[in-house]
Amino acid sequence: MSRFFSSKYNSLEPYTPGEQPKDVQYVKLNTNESPFAPSPRAVEYAAKAAQSLQLYPDPECRELTQRIADYLGLDFDQVLVTNGSDEILNFAFMAFCDEDHPAVFPDISYGFYPVFAQLNGIPYTELPLRDDFTIDADEYCGIGKTIIIANPNAPTGIALSTDEIEKIVKSNPDSVVVVDEAYVDFGGESCIKLINKYDNLLVTQTFSKSRSMAGARLGFGAGSKELIRDLNTIKYSTNPYNINKMTMAAGLGVMEDEEYTQKNCRTIIENREWTEEQLRSLGFETTVSKTNFVFAKHSEISGEKIYTYLKENGVLVRHFSKERICEYNRITVGTREQMEIFIDKIKLLLEEN
User: Fold this and answer.
1) Are the C-beta atoms of residues 275 and 333 closer than 8 Å to each other?
2) Model pTM greater than 0.85?
3) 219: exposed, middle or buried (C-beta count within 10 Å: 0-12, 13-18, 19+)?
4) Complete DSSP assignment for 70-134
5) Residue 98, phi then psi, degrees to nearest 5
6) How confident is the model at residue 294 (pLDDT cuts 50, 70, 90)?
7) DSSP 302
8) What DSSP designation does 339 have?
9) Do 175 and 101 meet the contact criterion of CB atoms below 8 Å apart?
10) Are 318 and 30 in contact (CB under 8 A)?
């Protein structure tokens, strides 16, 4: 770092995104992107929007916000559209966490949560997952802190029921509970339906996974009108024009083509179940995933060795160095052809060992 870098960030450990290699063509199963292109309608709308990029986008993102609100059964002012769900999550840390309202989240979850806390100078606690990697909902009940839970969780893929989420929300009436539903469209159960029942619940979702728009950066938060008003205060104090015109237009195209999204989700779920079955037949242990990825380990071959072998043979998966999960790899679910290549490489590795 330079001699000008603020000392308040000396201990900041930035988030490490998955590899985006440019030198080799890999079967890329490491960053939970969709293997399918965006809806043709999204591409068409984005191309049309590109013709007027000399003008600022609508800071209210009104048309897309209303479309999302209608889809969710909410009002316009219960939704805030953001630059990926990472932005709404950071806004939530900024708006609802401080010395008097510290953050709490699982010790094994989305790696950005501790980064957001450190970036904003927020004290935080990480509660250990159970030995089977499930979240103990009772540990979050009545805790009196700002709670952040990814549901389904990543990188484990395991989901809580809405009853368990509701128990957490209900028991913390004076604290905000943020539920990150980035992967909910692959078999999880959304708690959007609880928003009108509890004024302390904020739900975040993304267009990056099920809606094939990781490269466009689009997400949103949904909650009570008061929570969304708070988050808009943060937005208009940082970047009022946070959604560019092409992304906004593409988002509208996606929302008008829900059949395309649901078809892709069904295919990914089928491919996930096939991949899990293949891995288990080869001696792997997998968690019960409700996401677009599989979390797996082998009893005899280390997670790092599997990751390295696959990379050397043209397949990228995600390996984590954290002690409790270092024997696991997270495998994004792609097309059936991609998953067959992945399984073939695994078979070759097992034969060599």
Assistant:
1) yes
2) yes
3) buried
4) HHHT--GGGEEEESHHHHHHHHHHHHH-BTTB-EEEESSS-THHHHHHHHTT--EEEEPPPTTS-
5) -165, -165
6) very high
7) -
8) H
9) yes
10) yes
Residue 22: is its pLDDT beyond 80?
no
- Calculate the alpha carbon distances from 349 to 279, 304, 311, 325, 352 in Å: 13, 13, 12, 21, 5
CA distance 269 to 273: 6
Q: CA of 75: how far to CAs of 89, 180, 204, in Å?
A: 21, 20, 16
Which string of b and e fits 241-254 if b means at least 16 CB within 10 Å?
ebbbbbbbbbbbbb
Rounded-to-10 torsion of CA 263, 266, 61, 57:
-70
Alpha carbon dihedral 238, 227, 148, 182, in 10-degree steps, equals: -80
DSSP states along 242-295: -S-HHHHHHHHHHHT-HHHHHHHHHHHHHHHHHHHHHHHHTTEEE----SSEEE
**Domains by residue range for the chain, with CATH:** 12-37+259-352 (3.90.1150.10), 40-256 (3.40.640.10)
Can you say whether residue 149 is alpha, beta or left, with left for phi > 0 and alpha for psi between -120 and 50 degrees?
A: beta
Residue corresponding to tokens 């491919």: 271
What is the distance between the alpha carbons of residues 140 and 127, in angstroms, rounded to a whole number?
Answer: 9
Q: What is the distance of C-alpha 337 from the center of its chain?
A: 25
**Per-residue pLDDT for 21 more than 80?**
no
Q: What is the Cα–Cα distance from 264 to 339, expressed in whole angstroms?
A: 15
**Are 171 and 146 spatial neighbours (Cβ–Cβ below 8 Å)?**
no
